[in-house]
Design brief:
single chain, Rossmann fold, 20 strands, globular, 6-stranded mixed sheet, Helix Hairpins
Length: about 600
């Protein structure tokens, strides 16, 4: 076996008052492709910085083979001090490295090299940083969350590029599909120590669960032995002093070992606050189009979202995913067509940039403010009052962080906080724009379970292929030129139905992804519901009723458009406003009922 290119031995490091690394070890040999996994806050990024030589350990040894080149990709690259992205990338080249490769990589990542680093978005800065570490083709690549802020085409390109390199790699990522594709070994950082398994990431969960189960059995045995030894300490004989002193020393060692074997701290506990049950028809888009200048991002879209659907919206950056989300939720009016929202919708939104979080507010005030009670110490979750400290613990925030300003939290902590705020609000429609950013794998698993069991409706924008597969019942895919197409199932099901979308790099989709993950459900044999006389009568009468309500709404809107009405007659203004609200609700209910009956009629005629 070849000697390691990089070796960390017995690394101890304390940040603040808490020991973070306790004898961690890692060895990187030629050809290794290791994924470094662990909870947020377990020290993964810190260990990678120690490996890169950027952070000195309190004790331990770092060894790099003489002449071996190491390149490190941080989570938040700093491009300050460089005039262009090309200058930034070329500064990472060593003697004899190919300068043309720097420009080639920038172009492959969608940059020209002439961009001003001060004006780059998060995704563009990440692309420039990737070009900088990949251009030298180093012996060792240390990559901390390389897919953050990247869209699906860039992730697919990166997967191909990394697979083609001869460099040894240590990779931190929450993208399961990327880890499964690239990794050949796992380093699990848990409670300050690192364990290694020389198998791919697909084997991690089974290995982790077996390890924790074995630890629990060992801890149980030690607990029983500890009770016996402590009983001896209290009541045992005092003869043969030397033997007893040795036994007392063994007892202290046993206590230390028992403490060390305590399992990891409890995981996050995610639960969404449920709102009222929405109508069966949540939203309907008919002939919806939206353009910005000469560019059409949505063209003649027809789609329906029913209660309980979990629809994913996927496409390249710039395809219009967030615009489409705003159109479907009524936040943005279409240029053409109509979007009809169902009755009794309570929308809860998680925005991509976490802009809803006030960086100057404390963590506790942010959580209590989720229920409009900012400044108190209670959070209302599913109708029950929870103390804010207890709710913080559900999302892995220790009590001492209660007065911490949001602005100093890490990316993973901000992601968990945004989830905690969103899930405390009552709702029946979750609108999630990139919810997986900066979340660790354990939190991702719990979020997947929560969304799978959520009784309401979910609209999801994500670049995480595995997350889409596990959560979505259907996907809306950008087909180019403003066209969007519905597909049943998740990412893999979409690939099986249509193949790779045109915006993915050629050859980027492995054959295994093109296979459906599960067989299609058998067609229902339940007898179809028949239309009653009442249903038929309602279907005939509802169009006239909707026209009447639309006319009433128009009349009220015209009256309220009078700028002097409020000054002249405040009571009449309030009466008209209330009537408009009622008419709007009645119209939404009538439209939902008509759509439900029309769908039933079409289904019966087709059968």
């Amino acid at each position: 076996m070849a000697p390691p290119l990089l070796f960390l031995s017995d690394i101890f490091l304390t940040l603040g008052t808490s020991p973070l690394l306790r004898g961690a070890e890692i060895a990187v040999s030629p050809g290794d492709r290791l994924c470094l996994v662990g909870r947020n806050g377990s020290g993964k990024s810190t260990l990678l910085k120690v490996a890169a030589g950027l952070l000195p350990a309190d004790s331990g040894q770092r060894f790099v083979q003489p002449g071996a080149t190491v390149r490190y990709l941080p989570q938040e690259p700093d491009l300050a001090g460089f005039e262009t992205t090309l200058a930034y990338v070329e500064a990472g080249l060593g003697p004899g490295d190919d300068t043309h490769r720097a420009r080639t990589l920038l172009e492959a990542l969608g940059l020209t090299g002439a961009e001003d680093p001060a004006r780059l978005s998060g995704g563009e800065a990440r692309r420039a940083a990737l070009a900088r570490v990949l251009a030298p083709q180093p012996d060792i690549l240390l990559l901390d969350e390389p897919t953050n802020h990247l869209d699906l085409p860039a992730i697919a390109w990166l997967e191909q590029e990394l697979a083609s390199l001869r460099s040894a790699m240590v990779l931190i990522s929450h993208d399961r599909r990327l880890l499964e594709s690239l990794s050949r070994g796992i380093v699990w950082l848990d409670r300050g120590t690192a364990r290694r398994l020389d198998r791919g990431f697909a084997h991690f969960e089974a290995w982790r669960d077996d390890t924790l189960e074995q630890e629990e059995k060992e801890r149980h045995k030690l607990d029983r032995k500890l009770v016996m030894e402590e009983d001896w300490l209290r009541y045992g004989v005092t003869a043969r002093r030397k033997r007893n002193v040795r036994r007392l020393s063994d007892l202290h060692e046993l206590r230390a070992k028992t403490k060390q074997l305590r399992g990891p701290a409890g995981g996050p506990k995610l639960a969404a606050t449920e709102g009222e049950i929405s109508g069966r028809m949540v939203m309907v888009a008919e002939g919806v189009s939206k353009s910005f200048g000469d560019r059409t991002v949505v063209r003649e879209l027809d789609t329906r979202v029913l209660r309980g659907d979990r629809m994913g919206i996927i496409g390249a950056n710039g395809a219009g995913k967030t615009t489409l989300l705003n159109l479907l939720t009524g936040a943005m009016p279409p240029d053409q067509g109509v979007v009809k929202l169902g009755a009794s919708l309570q929308m809860v939104t998680l925005d991509q940039r976490r802009d809803s979080l006030d960086p100057t507010a404390t963590l506790a005030d942010t959580l209590t403010g989720a229920n409009g009670r900012r400044g108190g110490d209670q959070v209302i979750v599913n109708g029950q009052a929870r103390h804010v400290i207890g709710y913080m613990k559900d999302f892995l925030f220790p009590p001492e962080q209660a007065r911490t300003p949001v602005g100093v939290l890490s990316g993973g902590e901000r992601g968990r906080l945004a989830l905690a705020v969103a899930l405390a609000k009552p709702g029946n429609l979750l609108v999630l724009d990139e919810p997986t950013n900066d979340l660790d794998l354990e939190t991702l698993e719990l979020l997947q379970e929560l969304l799978a069991d959520y009784p309401g409706t979910v609209l999801l924008v994500s670049h995480d292929r595995d997350f889409i597969d596990r959560v979505c019942t259907s996907v809306l895919v950008a087909e180019g030129d403003g066209r969007w197409q519905d597909y049943a199932g998740g990412w893999s099901d979409m690939l099986a139905q249509r193949g790779a979308p045109p915006w993915l790099p050629v050859g980027s989709t492995p054959a295994r992804e093109a296979k459906a993950r599960s067989a299609a459900p058998a067609p229902s044999t339940a007898p179809a519901r028949k239309m009653s006389f009442k249903d038929k009568h309602a279907l005939e009468q509802l169009p006239a009723q909707m026209e009447k309500l639309q006319a009433e709404i128009g009349r009220l809107q015209t009256r309220l458009a009078d700028p002097d009405l409020y000054r002249r007659d405040p009571a009449a203004f309030q009466k008209a406003t209330d009537a408009l609200t009622r008419a709007g609700g009645d119209l939404a209910a009538a439209e939902e009922r008509w759509l439900e009956l029309e769908m039933l009629r079409e289904t019966l005629e087709a059968s």
